[in-house]
Structure formats: structure tokens, C-alpha cells
Amino acid sequence: MVGLYVILGIGLNIMLGLSGQFMIGIAALFAMGAYSVALLNSPFPHGLLWGFWPSLAVGVVMAVIGGLLLGLPIMRLRGDYLGIVTLGFGEIIRILLNSDLLTDITGGPRGIQNIQQPTFLGQPFTDVSYAYLIIIAMAVSIFLYYRLEKSRTGRAWLSIKEDALVARATGVDVQKYKLLALCVGAAFAGLAGGIFAARNQFTGPNDHTLMVSINVLSVVIVGGLNSIPGIILGSFALRGLPELLRELETYRLLVFGALLVFMMLVRPEGLWPSTRPNLEEKGSSGVKEDI
Description:
By secondary structure, the protein is mainly alpha-helical. It contains 13 helices and 4 strands.
């Protein structure tokens, strides 16, 4: 779960940290990846049994389509208004998945069970195999994130985050790049959702509640915006630490909440904040002092 939340955190950071879009409904995109793998690789309710790898590819594509459909009508929204709309989108998806009317299509409140395990070279996956798969997915996600951040697209996203009006005045197609950020972030969420469903061999509406979106948002904010080491530390702190405290079941949430409050008071910028590049030329300090 720590590894999957790292992938989810990277996807949300592209939306929030790079392009500045306050996204709270990432659980809906996570659900699209999970349910795509479940529906295409389970004997119930449709008996398609496509296999894990094609189903995972479809899950990523479906999440991207979900991000596209979400992004088109909300391009002019910003800040809290955008957050409220995306929160509503996440709740709509959860309610639809939980509806008795869609039981024949999505499994309804019971969810989808007996999702087939992936295989590699004819061998079914074990816990160690899943660990390697998640580590590889994390490494690929981190590599793609750094490539995007340093690219022209990443600079366009950052300019939109700083000031969309100025970015538009300098020739940046704001709507196109904001929509691209939603689609790319959705692809990471779909990837994490597909692996999650296959690993558990089950997925249901309770796996994609609002708390999933809140937890991913907390991972990014607590770890530090635009900081991959921060997202990794945030995932360990918010997903790994509660498991370590599970023996203290009665006081687990109390201790966890106290640690969060303490951390926010001591390091409000995050556990590992990102650093902005220093673009000053050598020898410019004297000019700066004269000014």
C-alpha cells in the first residue's frame, strides 16, 4: 500500500503541485483502473478473463478517459470551486458503484471477487512478485515524473500554477495543458488501481471512498509538494505508520493525529520540501547588491 500510494501521490502531484489544480476526487480515477482490471479479468459478472496485462492497459486508458471527461467542463474553475466539483465527481462514481441498479454490471455493493492473478513466464504472482511489480511501477512513475517536470510541458504547468493569466499572455495554451495534467495524473491513478485490484483479488465501493482521496492529498501535502522524496516519506508516514500502530488499536488514531499535528507545527512545508532551482549567474551577486 505504501508503494501504491507513492504512485497515487505522483499522479496527484502532477495535478496539484505542477499545474495547481486542487483535485480531491482522485479516488474515482483510482476506481476506474481497479474496476477495469476486475471486470475484464474475473469470472463474475461478465466472465471475460482477458488476463492481467491487457486489463491493466485498459484500466490506465479508462482512467485517462475519466480524467478527460472530468476536465473538459471544469477548465474555468479554480481553487476551492475546483476542489468541490472534483470531490462531487468522486462521490458520484462511488455511489454508482454502490448502486443496486448496476449490480449486473459492476457487482454493486458486493464488489467483484476472484480477480485472476497475473502470471509471468507461466508462473502465478506471489507476494514477492507483487513487491517487485510495485517497485518497478514506482521507478517508472518517478522517472516519467522527473522527465515531465524538466520538459517544456512541465515548465508550462508551473507557469500556469504561478499565474494562469500571465501564462496565457506569454502564449501558453492554459486549457490544453491543464487538461493534459489531469489526463497524465489520471494514468498514474489508473495504474495504481489496477495493481491494487489484482493484488487483493477483490475490489468494491468501500475501497474507493472519499478517505482515499483525502489520504492521497495528505501524502502530497505532508511529504512536500513537487518533492518525490517527500511523497515517499509521506506515504511511509501516513500508510506505513498506522500499520505499525495497529497493535495499539484503541489509541491508534489518537497517536496518529497527534503526530500529524506535531509535524505540521514543526515542518509545515512538508517532510522533504522541494527546492527551487537557483537561476542566478555566477558573479551576479554584486549586481544584486548594487540594486
